[in-house]
Specification:
It is a single chain. By secondary structure, the chain is of the alpha/beta class. The protein is built from eleven helices and ten strands. The protein has a domain of 67 residues. Strands 6-7-8-3-9-10 form a six-stranded mixed sheet, sandwiched between helices. A hairpin with a 2-residue loop joins strand 9 and strand 10. The chain is globular and about 55 Å long. 37% of the residues are buried.
Length: 264
């Protein structure tokens, strides 16, 4: 059996007395897309930060590309992060710069490439996400969907082996969402990129997921394929898949728990 790109074993993470992650374990093979699902405050963003090496778990092990990231030195972890691209829910583009200048930032910071080479690479990345014609525009001048695609282009700048997405279609209309989903699939199928996508959008999950991790109150409720998710008879899984808000409201996540997950 091949070494998984991601292997998480028995991860726990608390903030004070609040347990956000409880015994999280899963594996992801190269070239697959994993969708992480769950209600707001159920620990999805915290798990993503643990995978990035930003938050150290209280217990457990996280292996990326066969390496235990929390046994690494700071320099080793920085090297590893260059092979992982990240897109944030807001896009996190710098408004004072054009889309091309935003995409160039990782190359300028992490490499010693000359300006002409960087400019060529930026054009390639913008072409990949269908934004070459908007290269000179600033984030305030383009649509929300274009901002999200520009953020993906920036995440691709260092030719990563894996991309992590935090709610890539949040706030987008159905057409823009479908375009982002198609881009995720194209990057997987065309470049072999492994994707980890935190999302609430079930239509997106149906379009892009190879694997699904459904969290419930910080624990893994389901770890399996898309078919496992859609065919599960577990009532809480069915509630999430079908958007049964009345049933889900019987055990709501508190606003305070949501804030802790988002901000920690």
């Amino acid at each position: 059996m091949s070494t998984p790109v991601i292997e998480v074993e028995g991860v726990h993470r608390s903030f004070g007395s609040h347990k956000v992650l409880r015994n999280i374990s899963f594996r992801l093979e190269e070239g697959q897309t994993l969708c992480i699902l769950g209600a707001s405050g159920d620990g999805k963003t915290t798990l993503l930060k643990v995978l990035m090496g930003v938050l150290r778990p209280d217990e457990g092990r996280v292996s990326i590309f066969g390496q235990d990231i929390y046994a690494m030195s700071t320099e080793e972890l920085l090297d590893l992060r260059r092979s992982i691209g990240v897109t944030f829910q807001s896009g996190a583009l710098l408004n004072s710069m054009s889309l091309a200048e935003n995409v160039a930032l990782p190359l300028e910071y992490h490499t010693e490439l000359d300006d002409d080479t960087i400019a060529t690479m930026v054009k390639i990345k913008l072409q990949q996400v269908g934004l070459l014609d908007a290269a000179d525009q600033r984030p305030a001048e383009v649509s929300g969907g274009m901002k999200k695609r520009a953020a993906v282009a920036r995440a691709l700048a260092m030719d990563p082996r894996m991309l992590l997405y935090d709610e890539p279609s949040a706030g987008l209309d159905p057409i823009a969402t479908a375009r982002i989903d198609r881009l995720i699939n194209d990057l997987k199928n065309g470049m072999g990129i492994t994707n980890v996508v935190v999302t609430h959008e079930m239509e997106s999950v149906r379009r892009i997921a190879d694997r699904v991790l459904l969290q419930y109150r910080g624990s893994v409720l389901l770890d399996g394929t898309l078919d496992d998710l859609l065919e599960s008879s577990e009532p809480r899984v069915q509630q999430f898949v079908n958007g049964d808000l009345e049933s889900l409201a019987l055990a709501p996540t508190t606003l305070a728990a949501y804030h802790r997950d988002l901000l920690q």
